[in-house]
């Protein structure tokens, strides 16, 4: 779990900038009246009109949401469902006051007051005078020219009234009656801008992939004798071209030019340039400003796909709310950077800013790190009116127009589309980016792209076979442990291989849990409404995070296991769009897993090396040849790590070299310690060896009692019972077999037999066979054990996260150690990895209990371990159904569904091939090995040799 405010430093925008920065006379100067973000605030006077701490003047930190400062009341956006469509917080307003002074040298400048974001209606007064019209709309930068309202010889009074609900019904419909937390207050910075009298107001840049550069600059108070000069500066600070305005109207100057061989901006190559823009009178600079931008060309080729710089791209995206639990939508650039880096760590290349424009810092980070951005006008199933929407589109586009990361404007969400606004974006966006509709109803496609939400796998295939490009802006809803990466592999392969598949955006990045100041800091996700993340509220990584990382890895490896003919060659598929794999680095390691009796989990690296990456162009495949030593088969496993051109890990794959029979050989020893003793009563047959006594029921052949010399009783019993299928006890025989003693139980029905064999060493073998014919959610056998007796486990298998049939990716072979916890994904406690669940490819597992330890091992492959009761999706009926019992050893496990792709009380088959139930038409035979205590190990295991250490734990 991340600490609450342990952030990564980054130089981007306002965070950390002093309250006043003095520049040269021809530059814009900034004076902050508020703080710059949620961790750098300024105290203002405050009066809340309703709810907690209301009805008197006190103080508040700005920026903030007043609920998170202890004022007013909370409401989740869907409160109109509870309270009716006329539900309003009209009585809850915030009155702000703040005194400030103006630098004397600003006297001949134009001074604006700027608000980056305020919820919702905002009235501003300076020295008792209204600054301008009330601003309606929460997520948009707005400003007023207050030059003629300021005092330069004495302090000035700023008064702001913020109404939680808007007087514009369309603003409430678009922003506040939505499926997310709703707050009040000035939640982004407030500052003064001082410009020279003649100045550049804003610029729109269009820089194409062919080097064509165009810019429109809006000017104020200028005459016809002025000229605009633009220096294009590369990332090394070198001026590569100087351009001058070709023409000028009264308010707009235009600059055009051609740059030779620019470095192009993509998510894989985020090359940025700086435009130094100077308004001049002859050689004198009147005003100078800068804009970051990138050269790139975006195209929608209808019936084909989305193209960037002439190359088709596919979105590996996620929806992101601007969020931090303690401070809501008031965040800082370190949080923005953390989120962008986490998205990149999942090998994603895109993010949708749902359902409103984000902070400026996040877009700057997407520019510099490389993420495709879908920037969205608010409108959650209801749209702004045309009058209001035209103003807010203008505010959004003017602020964000020059970010190369933005490749789409989204005109609202799920029916919140005012189609009258579709052509407004191009009025301010010189590059004329595509506009899309993020919708959830078929038939609402726009600009050749269908963005319909939450289609299943088979309806997705139908859409892709039709005439439209398909790019769902929401799919595989990740409430609780459902969605996210569940079935994602099937969906992604479909989009990757189909011509008109453009990828999509998972819902959503984080669980939107708010720290409730009215409930002693408890985190509230509003029931099933907001636990929708791949990450917890403080960015705790869920299992889907790692699954997505493997599924979306641009280095695709299909090798699931090392075959008998493996010669060190691994087939690589390049799933980058622009990058040759020779830009990547590959490291290989030969490792040995640590054994169960050793204190540490993890593995030891015994040999490793770096291998030259082959030249494999995007969309091509090729071979990576590992220079393995001749004795490589003597090691437990092979690891391969891929790193991108920046040195960031793409993914690490691990393949077992030795079969389970050899991997468990050091713990599964049959050294004779004592003879096996057998006793029989009216109800049981008991076998005892090396201090361990096992009792088998003569009534049903199941394990009924366990004791050893170190514990009076072990509660592991009532198995093996089939989790699927029927059996009827037929007969029981018991006999001595050489040095062992056997109890053989025969059944009628699906279970054929159980053969118990006690070794003199104390190891108990359990061989069983069953036959099923049909489709089943799970198959295998189960035992009972009290959950509250379980302290934790250590195991050799895939982990550390649990798996589902349709979410097997993201886990890797290792010796993992886990403590028992009661985490439920999405609703806390956010302790990951969860303890209860299904675990894949178990070789051995050591259970640590209040009654002592016991170990279970297998020589066979593909054994799943089930631990206790858990579920993926909460609802009227938890999903999916579970096997009976507490600890199960399974040959097949179930898939999971998602919140919106299906009714969770039905099966998951609509989500694709991996989401179908298990089709079983065969005999299944397996042997498990039990030791009820701490097993003796071979001499090999007692030598703890550790040339180099890599510890991988949860």
Automatic annotation (TrEMBL):
Residues 299-516 form the Glycoside hydrolase family 2 catalytic domain. It catalyses: Hydrolysis of terminal non-reducing beta-D-galactose residues in beta-D-galactosides. It comes from the Bacteria. Monomer. Its cofactor is Ca(2+). Belongs to the glycosyl hydrolase 2 family. PROSITE patterns: GLYCOSYL_HYDROL_F2_1, GLYCOSYL_HYDROL_F2_2. Pfam families: Glyco_hydro_2, Glyco_hydro_2_C, Glyco_hydro_2_N. Residues 209-296 form the Glycoside hydrolase family 2 immunoglobulin-like beta-sandwich domain. Keywords: Calcium, Glycosidase, Hydrolase. The keyword Calcium applies. Residues 58-196 form the Glycosyl hydrolases family 2 sugar binding domain. Its EC number is 3.2.1.23. This is Beta-galactosidase. It comes from Chryseosolibacter indicus. Gene3D superfamilies: 2.70.98.10, Galactose-binding domain-like, Glycosidases, Immunoglobulins. GO terms for molecular function: hydrolase activity.
